[in-house]
Specification:
With 255 residues, the chain is of the alpha/beta class. It folds into two domains: 91 residues, Nucleotidyltransferase, domain 5, CATH 3.30.420.40; 146 residues, Nucleotidyltransferase, domain 5, CATH 3.30.420.40. 41% of the residues lie in helices and 18% in strands. The strands form three sheets. It has a five-stranded mixed beta sheet, sandwiched between helices. It has a two-stranded antiparallel sheet with strand order 1-2. A two-stranded parallel sheet has the order 3-4. A hairpin with a 5-residue loop joins strand 6 and strand 7. Helix 6 crosses helix 7.
């Protein structure tokens, strides 16, 4: 259950069966039932065919269809290690927050840290920047890679960062240069979180922001090493919850 998007992933013993995502401001109980039904329909199943349902970032009291609740940190680690079993450092960047997680052998969680109340560096922050610059959010990353003269954007406050961007627009600075500055600010916030938990390879970036090539590039340059991104990174938490649900259901079950 994300702050803006609600995701569902169905698994069986063979792997991922289907997945669905909706953007919704409905009550958690309504949105979760709707996205779960969509995922089941894609797989040719009824929701009653799903043996165990786990929810993350919400409790079973908020999502009555769920049988169990899994912490966001544990679900993220489980989902990331589905693709990257050697993951040791995870940065999850979503719509409203981001989390740095230290992984220990066998998928255990070490230290973790989250951002403060400011939204600078989140997916919502990037959507605001895209709106100001009149750029489709899906194209922000690739456009920023064409920058020739990066500008400085504050990384500490979303309000100040927005003011910086508006000022650069009024001065006629190229959009690509502004966007690289925006992505550098996002990467700086992510780097700050990772420094609080310790950084060890392999490093994984996940969450919806991980789909932005400009953020990935900026983070790699700041870290000085490769940053890996899983397939469909916005589904990592939902995938992890599904893995945990499936494993608790036993062999040849669906979750």
């Amino acid at each position: 259950m994300g702050s803006i998007a609600v995701k569902a992933v169905l698994l069986n013993s063979g792997g991922i069966v289907s997945q669905s995502l909706i953007k919704s401001y409905e009550h958690s109980a309504v949105a979760s039932q709707r996205v779960l039904t969509m995922a089941a329909d894609k797989a040719g199943l009824a929701t009653a065919d799903i043996e165990v349902i786990a929810v993350t970032n919400a409790g079973v009291d908020e999502v009555p269809v769920a049988h169990k609740s899994v912490s966001e940190v544990r679900a993220t680690v489980s989902g990331v290690q589905w693709f990257f079993p050697n993951a040791r450092t995870i940065l999850s960047m979503g719509a409203e927050k981001f989390i740095g997680i230290q992984c220990i052998d066998a998928g255990a969680v070490g230290k973790f840290a989250t951002n403060d109340k400011c939204a600078s560096g989140s997916g919502s922050f990037l959507e605001i920047m895209a709106s100001i610059l009149e750029v489709e959010i899906e194209k922000m990353g690739e456009l920023s890679l064409k920058a020739s003269n990066k500008v400085e954007i504050t990384s500490q406050c979303a309000v100040f960062a927005e003011s910086d961007v508006v000022g650069y627009v009024h001065r006629g600075i190229k959009k690509a240069d502004i966007l690289m500055g925006v992505h550098e600010a996002v990467a700086a916030n992510g780097f700050s979180i990772l420094n609080r938990i310790g950084i060890e390879e392999d490093i994984i970036l996940t969450g919806g922001v991980a789909k932005n090539a400009g953020v990935v590039d900026a983070l790699e340059r700041r870290l000085g090493t490769k940053v890996w991104v899983p397939a469909d990174p916005e589904f990592s938490g939902a995938l992890g919850a599904a893995v945990i649900a499936r494993d608790s259901a036993g062999p040849r079950r669906q979750a």
